Amino acid sequence: QGQFVDRTEEWALRREREDLLEQKIRDRELIEEKTVQLENLATRLAKYLSPQIYQSIFSDEGKTIEKHSRKNLTIFLSDIVKFTDLTDTLEPERLALVINSYLSEMSAIALDNGGTIDKFIGDAVLVFFGDPESEGEREDALKCVEMSLRMKQRVKELQKHWKKLGVVNEISIRMGIATGYCTVGNFGSDLRLDYTVLGSPVNLAARLESMAEPNTILIDENTKNLIEEDVDCKEFDSFIPKGFSRAIQVFKVNDFISSKHRTQRKKLSHTGERVEINVLDSSDIHAAMKELREIQEYLEEQFKENK
C-alpha cells in the first residue's frame, strides 16, 4: 500500500512538472507572437515618422521628445509649380504614381542630408535641420542648401521617367529656406499629436517658396550669412512679409562656389565599400556614371592625403 502511494505522488509531481513546462512553452510562444506583432507595428509606424523622431520615441530616452524647446533651426519648404494642373490632367492612379515617386525621391535626399521631415502637405515638403540632431547652425544650413540643390538636380533627372507616366509638361519645383529660432516639439490634441516646428521662420520659408521662380531656391539673410563662404548667392529682392515689422532681404542660391568643394562636402550614396545608385530608366545611367566618377575622384584625393 505504501509503495502505491509513493508512486502516485511521483506521477502527480511529474504531471505537475509537465504542466508547468507546457505553460512555459505556451507563454514563450505568446511572447514571440506579440513580439512579432509589435515589430510589424513598429515597421508600419516608421513610415509615418522621420527616422530621427522614430528613434527618439523608441529609444530609452524617448520621454525627452515630450518636451518643447526653442532652437535655431533652418527651415525648408518646397512645392510643385502648377500642381493643380497636374491633378486635373492625370488619372488618379497615374497621379499617385507620380506624386509618390516624387515624394520618395525627395524624402531620400532629405534623410541622406540629415534633415527631419516634418510633413507632406499635398505636394509640399516641409523639412527642418537642427533638431533632434544638430551639427551646428552653419553646418545645418549648408546641409539644407545642399539638399535643395540635390533635389533640384534629381527633379531634372526624373523628367523622362515621369513623362512615361503621362506627365505632359515638365515638373518644376520652387524652394524657400529660412533660418531662425523656432519652438519644436509635440503639438496637437489629447487624441493626436504632431512633432513639428512653430515660429516666424516657418512662415518666412513659405513666403520665400511662394515667390520663387520655377526651379529656384530663395533664402533669407540669416541663412545667407551662414553659408556665403561656400555657396554662391545673389541678391534677389526685399519685401516686408505679413506679420514682420521690417523688410526681409532675399537671396537666390546658384550653387556651391567650388564644384570640387561640393564634391568633398557631398554625402555620397555609399556605405563602406558598398555603392547604391538608383537607376529608374536609361536617362539615369549617365547621372549614375557621373556620380561614380565623382566617388572615384574623391577617394583618390583622400588616398593621396592619407598617403
TrEMBL record:
Guanylate cyclase domain: residues covered: 74-209
GO BP, sorted A to Z: cAMP biosynthetic process; intracellular signal transduction
Record-given protein name: Guanylate cyclase domain-containing protein
Native source organism of the sequence: marine metagenome
